[in-house]
Amino acid sequence: MKRKKFKLVAWILTSILALFLLFATWYKFRYSMDPVAPYTLNSETLENKLLIATQGSAFKDAVVRQVIEHYQKDSLFIKVVDVSDLPKLDSSDYVAVLILHTWEYDKPPKVVADFVIENKDDAGKLILLSTSGEGGNTIEGVDGIGGASIISDVPNYSMKIIKRLDGLLIAKE
């Protein structure tokens, strides 16, 4: 009798674990961000340089597009990379750094958190747009905007970012 009860409990626990793993896999697949192919605009020899690190999603792509359209005629070098490239980059090479990322499991991606910590001396040039379902998450100690990824809100978020970037980029000119 005890053996049957033990097998039943083991089977139930194994089933729960399997369901949890299936849910976690589905969640990661469903809500993971697409990779972003790196590209640059304007000459790297320009003094004013903006780094944009982002994750691929319709919302983030639209925000990046509007920011670039705003600055494309300025004397500004713009480098766009995937957030996974942040460990290879140094914020001191740029006048401003814009990072767009999604909160994953109630925290920012590790590469973003590590980049912020490693570049804490340049925290004044970092601007982060953190997206999540509830929209209120930001990294403490950094100029951050939190919001939900709602396409109709792209112009609003883009203008908030541009105002903050203007404060950094215009001050440099």
Short description:
The protein has two domains: 31 residues; 134 residues, Rossmann fold, CATH 3.40.50.2300.
What labels would you give this structure?
single chain, 173 residues, alpha/beta, Rossmann fold, 6-stranded mixed sheet, 6 strands, 19% strand, elongated
Structure commentary:
This protein is α/β, with parallel strands linked by helices and 173 residues long. It has two domains: 1-31; 39-172, Response regulator (Rossmann fold, 3-Layer(aba) Sandwich), CATH 3.40.50.2300. The protein is built from four helices and six strands; from the N terminus they run H-E-E-H-E-E-H-E-E-H. Strand 2 (49-54), helix 2 (58-71) and strand 3 (77-82) form a beta-alpha-beta unit. Helix 2 runs parallel beside helix 4. The radius of gyration is 20 Å and the shape is elongated. The N and C termini lie far apart (81 Å). The model has no long low-confidence stretch (mean pLDDT 86).
**Biggest sheet, strands in spatial order?**
1-3-2-4-5-6
CATH class of the largest domain: Alpha Beta
Distinct helical segment count: 4
* CATH fold category name of the largest domain: Rossmann fold
Q: Count all strands and give the number.
A: 6
Known CATH architecture of the largest domain: 3-Layer(aba) Sandwich
Oligomer: single chain
Give the amount of beta strand, in percent: 15-25%
Main beta sheet, described?
Answer: 6 strands, mixed
Q: How many separate structural domains? A: 2
Helix content: 40-55%
Mean of residue pLDDT values:
86
Low-confidence segments, given as residue ranges, are none
